[in-house]
Specification:
This protein is mainly alpha-helical. The chain has one domain. It is 74% helix and 1% strand. It has a two-stranded antiparallel sheet.
């Protein structure tokens, strides 16, 4: 991988995202687009919501530029960004006036299906672990779930920026270990996402001056989900599972518990493990820093999986995630 080009992409997207987010702040305030605290919130004062407008604008511009420079397939250069833009538009409308979950789910499923149907021959996502006909179906279901869990997990200052930065840089690290032009391309897209998240984090770190909103978290989940699926199709499904595994574990276990209790899982709540930690006194900054540290370990394990030690990496990642969720549940005593 061209390290100099990767560093340039990281710095440029970070600076542009910071500038765009700063420019957006007075607009959101002037239009009174605030996230007001309620009994399900983790913040204590009205905060402008919609910072994802800046993040996604910068990331999609960088994505198209990177794809054009690399001579990537038209679907990757234009199709995926157009689908992400459509999701951002629907999500922005939802940020302004909350709508039912069914319409959002239909649009997400349509965007995912469109990309999977139009994608050129990419091989099996699960490398033969599933029948060939079932492979893209399961991939699509998991992708839609990833989009939603990425949105669900955006509940405290800094956490979505940290996760985006971690997955983006993780893709680059795996690319260096595994090699190959197809993985190098994924690395550059991932670095762009990491840079945009880094620029946004400067204003979203606790105490946050701005929130991302669904307009940011939903298309980010879509874009990162596609990069992870592409990594899996390139033969690195273990690394693709390990990189987002903390988010996968926290969201899936939490929503599973709520479903068993008969709760409406799409409703806002404060029962994720990271939210429990905040409620028990650990604080936004401390929790997000811990997520960053755990994600750093997961990046190294994803690289280990890419080097041929996949079983060991998967087992250690599972142990780390279980231990981390347990410590988060203990809150300030962790």
């Amino acid at each position: 991988m061209n390290v100099l080009l990767a560093a340039l992409i990281l710095i440029l997207t970070a600076v542009l995202a910071l500038i765009a987010t700063r420019a957006l702040l007075p607009v959101l305030r002037g239009r009174a687009i605030f996230d007001h605290p309620n009994e399900r919130s983790s913040h204590e004062r009205p905060t402008p919501r919609g910072g994802g407008l800046a993040v996604i604008a910068v990331l999609l511009a960088a994505w198209i530029g990177i794809g054009s420079f690399l001579g990537d397939a038209a679907l990757m250069v234009w199709g995926v960004p157009v689908a992400a833009f459509a999701l951002a538009a629907i999500s922005w409308a939802d940020d302004l006036k909350s709508r039912g979950p069914l319409g959002r789910l239909v649009v997400q499923a349509a965007a995912v299906t469109g990309v999977l149907v139009l994608a050129p021959d990419h091989g099996l996502f699960f490398q033969g672990l599933l029948p060939a006909g079932l492979d893209p179906v399961v991939a699509g279901i998991l992708w839609v779930w990833f989009i939603n869990l990425f949105n669900f997990m955006d509940g405290i200052d800094g956490i979505t920026g940290v996760e985006t930065f971690s997955i983006g840089t993780g893709l680059a690290v795996v690319a260096v270990v595994v090699g190959g032009p197809e993985n190098q391309a994924l690395a550059f897209y991932g670095i762009a996402a990491a840079g945009a998240a880094l620029g946004f984090l400067t204003l979203n770190w606790h105490p946050a001056k701005i929130f991302m909103g669904d307009v940011g978290s939903v298309p980010l989940g879509f874009l990162l989900g596609w990069l992870l699926l592409s990594l899996a199709a390139n033969g690195q499904w273990e690394a693709a599972v390990i990189l987002p595994s903390y988010y996968l574990a926290d969201a899936t276990l939490t929503l599973g518990r709520r479903a068993v209790r008969g709760e409406k899982i799409w409703r806002p709540h404060r029962r994720h493990f990271y939210q429990l930690a905040v409620q028990r006194g650990l604080g936004h900054r401390a929790v997000s820093l811990r997520v960053l540290v755990v994600n750093g370990a997961l990046v190294l394990l994803a690289a280990l999986a890419g080097s041929g030690q996949a079983v060991t990496a998967l087992v250690v990642a599972a142990v780390i995630n279980i231990a981390f969720l347990f410590r988060l549940a203990r809150g300030a005593g962790a």
